[in-house]
Fold each of these.
Amino acid sequence: MCGITGCVSTQDCVPLMIESLGRLAYRGYDSAGVAVCDAGGIKLRREHGKLENLMALLARQPLSGRTGIGHTRWATHGRPSESNAHPQTYKKIAIVHNGIIENFMPLRAELEAGGHVFSSETDTEIVAHLISDAYETCADFSKAVRIALARVRGSYAIVAICADCPDELVAARLQSPLLVGLGNNMNFATSDISAVLPYTRRFIFLEDGDFVRMTHDAVSLFDAQGKIITREAKTIEWDIRAAEKQGYPHYMLKEIFEQPAKITDTFRGRILSESAEVNLDAPVNALELENVSRIQIVACGTSYHAGLLGKYMIEKMARLPVDVDVASEYRYRDPILKPDDGFIAISQSGETADTYACVKMARAAGAKILAICNVMDSSIARASDAAFYTRADPEIGVASTKAFTTQVASLALLAIHLGRKRNFLDAERARTCLEALRRVPSEMEVMLEQSDDVRKTAQKLLRANSFLYLGRNVHYPIALEGALKLKEITYIHAEAYPSGEMKHGPIALIDDRLPVIVIAPKNSTYEKTLSNLQEVRARGGRIISIVSEGDEDLSKLSEAYFTIPNCDEFVQPLYSVIYLQLLAYHIADLLGHDVDHPRNLAKSVTVE
Ligand code: M6R
């Protein structure tokens, strides 16, 4: 979704802001803009489309200033266009905004009745008008922002500049992420750590209702009443190179290849081989989830698929009932959650609006809340009782890959931990499981060498206009994940079904044009899946399969097949998903799509 950057410095901040906007582009956007304060007042440059368009405009009409704000917009209110791009300005005020102002229609009507003329269709512009009106009355910029925001309902991360205060940024947050970056003779307000990571590693994570006023050498925080508050600054350890492509054509491909290393990082210090125990981080241990009566998992998209695998693993290893819900459904269906329940929110970004809302519901219900997140100190992580970090480093590709496998690896550790604590998993079985997990990174490296073979298969599938993904048991969530990857970056329709459901409808789809991607390594349901595939074959279906090494029966039925190591069923998903990620990637790339910036999608869905 939209990205925010704001900078107040002793030097020209425009080049730095453009670089930052480049780092925000991965979030998904349709227009971009910057505004600065200089001696002549507010100066604005905006363009529809790619950041390159804005850069070309800046080359024709240069801009400079020590204080500025920038934005990449993903349209919600108002079509993508130059006039709807941010910053939005009114008189002496310019603002950038992430989120949605829910009462913008009555506010706009009221302002129009008072003589205000609007230049955009956005909800954001009304905030610039409100701040301007308040500023004309109180002549205090930060107070004007507070007065204006007291009138709006919805969610926002806002950064504002004022022509009369050329060395000052004012920012505020409510249910939309915003951070303050503390630099050397420069300070930042940003929606995203990686946007300004080259300039600082020290960040203050704003809380809902916080306001901040900053100059190049001072930052003050206050609440809605204007009372000074304090927030601790944190140092971010992320390696800045993790947010670079490092020679790969796309972030997604780089991130697929990073998975062995990131899973190793996820395991580091958490597997105790001697005792066959899992050492979760102290706050997670302290939650004592082993004592809850059931666990509710909530997540969206790829993280939801990881949650489905979490159910298989936790129920099997710890015999603890687990329900899994898509967050946007859960939050509106009056769910039953009790104080003796455990609640797990899974989110790469830690900022997904629906998942965040569910965490607040779990808090109200008194459940024990664990966040499984990648981004440290993200909103969901902070709103939970404890956070388990997946250590995947920044994930830039919109299509989630390394976040997924590190989430699954984390859930596997949690399942073993709960199994041990609840005495359903003996030390020998736990040791076998942990050893199987330990082998994943090196075995995965070998599988990744087959990327070129996957590309050759992808080449043969480019004309298909629909795909069916089949899997059973732990491979059903993987089928769902494979279909999601394909849809989001190739724009080809794909559907996933549990293999056992074939005869209940989807078998009618089978013909010689429909590629059927089957995930069927040797496990407890292998024989049954094999029968389902005979039925597909008998109807002329094209089978591309993921099989265990040495499986001749299934490979003979398949137009193409890829092998995973012979291993315990519960680690198989960590292997099988790799081929599905690669298949989607290569099809998208061969079709000429912008793999890292799929149309209409945003990396982090921070509005409903
Ligand atoms: O940051 P989150 O894990 O909460 O994001 C959830 C989904 O938006 C995300 O997984 C999305 O489905 C991915 N683009 C899928 O590749």
Amino acid sequence: MTQMDKIKVKTTIVELDGDEMTRIMWKMVKDKLLFPFLEMDLEYYDLHIKKRDETDDRITVDAANAIMKYGVGVKCATITPNEDRVREYDLKEQWKSPNGTIRAMLDGTVFRKPILVNNIKPFVSTWEKPIIIGRHAYGDVYSGTEIRIPSAGRAEITFIPADGGEPVKRTINDFTAPGIIQGIYNTDDSILGFARACFTFALDQKIDLWFSTKDTISKIYDAHFRDVFEREYEKNWKVKFEEAGIEYFFTLIDDAAARVIRSEGGMLWALKNYDGDVMSDMVAAACGSLAMMTSVLVSPHGYFEYEAAHGTVQRHYYKYLDGEETSTNSMALIFAWSGCLRKRGELDGTPGVCEFAGKLEAAAIETIEGGTMTGDLFSIARKSPNNRKVNTEEFIDAVAARLREKLS
Ligand code: NAP
Ligand code: MG
């Protein structure tokens, strides 16, 4: 394409670069699938682990601020440093997970959606459409307090009001022998943010929203989640949902789990933190490969951050560094870009950009359905004489060839 024919993206996109094998693929995706066809302004933040270290992680905060300024960002996978990484990259300290930092600033909920292709069947034969998991990424057991009870004794739970009011105290258990206890919490603000993100996302995608908790057993904690969702729905979403022809449906988590298995998919399933953690891995595994799972952080304030659900694919990167051939799947990275472009196009009112995003996704899916795929999929795809295992770059080249056809 000449400069004149390129599709113009109106508003700046915030780009967060990352680490290892995903960083290698990130550049290939931009060079081969985006820059030849799009004229766009990118505000670039390099979240490479060394850059985070050099800036004392200021770069991550700056990137999150930029997403809040422009509204839409796209992020490559990044290393969350542990002790090994501190040694490997000679880091000043074990910097926090960039995703954690960004989530805390954007106040978001994470939505994960598998990419389905017709030659890789989900293990659940009734699933025709993707099941999207909306996981509340705040509180509960992830910030719980636990005590090992060594001997007989009374365990109590107490709330002490800051205004000097009467403390509220309950007995958890009178232990006659050793045991364990756990204290967990959540906040009304965070639950409401979670609810709003789920309603926003379901309406945006025009799909039903299911929400489930164990409210019959947890009559205050889980029931409160149910009530916050219900009130928010009645107040701000009921009319919009009815107009869009979609429904909000609350049910007990056991019932939801059984129904999901027998459903054809195609809904957003909102889940509390732990439930979402478990169920999103189950859905990912049932759909084939981690590399076929997209992820978007939706903030109740209307910010969007798109990424792949997988990590930096360290094992493949070491092979790459050794000069060996890799066959790493770039699908989730490609879909991070297409998701971000479509959202940008919607917000800007530029249908051409949304159309490009659709064509990019179609080109990528058709490449796999035509038999050209990376190793992770090659081993699980329906057998066909057309199937061909390609390397990392060959896959992206094959997508580029199809995309060119679609755009010409
Ligand atoms: P990972 O990068 O997700 O990779 C785990 C394994 O899954 C890979 O070794 C590979 O299996 C397979 N896999 C994942 N993505 C693939 C792809 N695109 N194509 C083909 N195979 C793929 O997880 P990890 O190795 O546990 O973590 C590596 C680094 O990523 C860590 O430093 C972690 O902190 C970081 N991480 C970042 C994010 C994020 O930024 N969102 C998320 C998770 C982890 P085989 O080796 O069997 O081929
Ligand atoms: Mg998990």
